[in-house]
């Protein structure tokens, strides 16, 4: 099974693609989609949609997992990120993919066994679980890989996390 993990954003969208065969997890690709703050929001959303759609077409994931958005203090930021997440979900939907979502607490627990783990602890966990020599960069890509790995661990409970 090929899983695409997405760390939603508008300035930086992290993505990570893994393949799970039995209990083994293999890294296929990771990276980020970046948009310039001086670009109009509609154009930024189009860039994100088109690039993510291209990644989906290239790697043909079976499922896509997103991090659930949490409340942010800056209302402009949360609106922009919510709009971006919408087009990120749309890219999966138009490609007929099953879509799942996980809270940061669920991701941290899956990767480290501790729901209040630091960002660095999660990144080290991703490095260890994927047998990498370095932590994936940028941070958003490491977060996306953590989301994909979390989803790969959901097993028979995956339907609980399916986006409706």
Written account of the structure:
This protein has a five-stranded mixed sheet with strand order 3-2-1-4-5. The chain has helices at 41-59, 75-94, 104-112, 119-129, 139-152; strands at residues 2-7, 12-21, 24-34, 63-67, 98-102. It is an alpha/beta fold. 45% of the residues lie in helices and 23% in strands. The chain is globular and about 45 Å long. The longest helix has 20 residues, at 75-94. It has one domain: Ribonuclease H-like superfamily/Ribonuclease H (Nucleotidyltransferase, domain 5), CATH 3.30.420. The protein contains five helices and five strands.
Question: What would you say about this model in short?
Answer:
The protein is α/β, with parallel strands linked by helices. 45% of the residues lie in helices and 23% in strands.
For the residues shown, what is the average pLDDT?
A: 93
Helix content: 40-55%
Total helical elements: 5
Largest sheet: 5 strands, mixed
Name the descriptors:
single chain, 164 residues, alpha/beta, Nucleotidyltransferase, domain 5, 23% strand, globular
How is the secondary structure organized here?
Layout (H helix, E strand, L loop, with lengths): L1 E6 L4 E10 L2 E11 L6 H19 L3 E5 L7 H20 L3 E5 L1 H9 L6 H11 L9 H14 L12
Parallel strand pairs: 1-4, 4-5
Antiparallel strand pairs: 1-2, 2-3
Helix pairs in contact: 1-2, 3-5, 4-5
């Amino acid at each position: 099974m090929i899983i695409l993990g997405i760390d939603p954003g508008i300035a930086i969208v992290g993505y990570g693609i893994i393949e799970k065969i039995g209990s083994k997890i293999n890294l296929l690709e990771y990276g980020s989609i970046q948009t310039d703050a001086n670009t109009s929001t509609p154009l930024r959303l189009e860039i994100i949609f088109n690039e993510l759609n291209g990644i989906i077409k290239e790697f043909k994931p079976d499922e896509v997992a997103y991090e659930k958005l949490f409340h942010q203090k800056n209302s402009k930021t949360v609106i922009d990120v919510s709009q971006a997440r919408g087009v990120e979900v749309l890219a999966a939907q138009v490609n007929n993919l099953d879509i799942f979502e996980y809270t940061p607490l669920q991701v941290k627990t899956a990767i480290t066994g501790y729901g209040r783990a630091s960002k660095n602890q999660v990144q080290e966990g991703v490095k260890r679980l994927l047998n990498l020599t370095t932590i994936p960069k940028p941070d958003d890509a490491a977060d996306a890989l953590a989301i994909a790995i979390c989803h790969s661990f959901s097993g028979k409970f995956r339907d609980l996390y399916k986006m409706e």
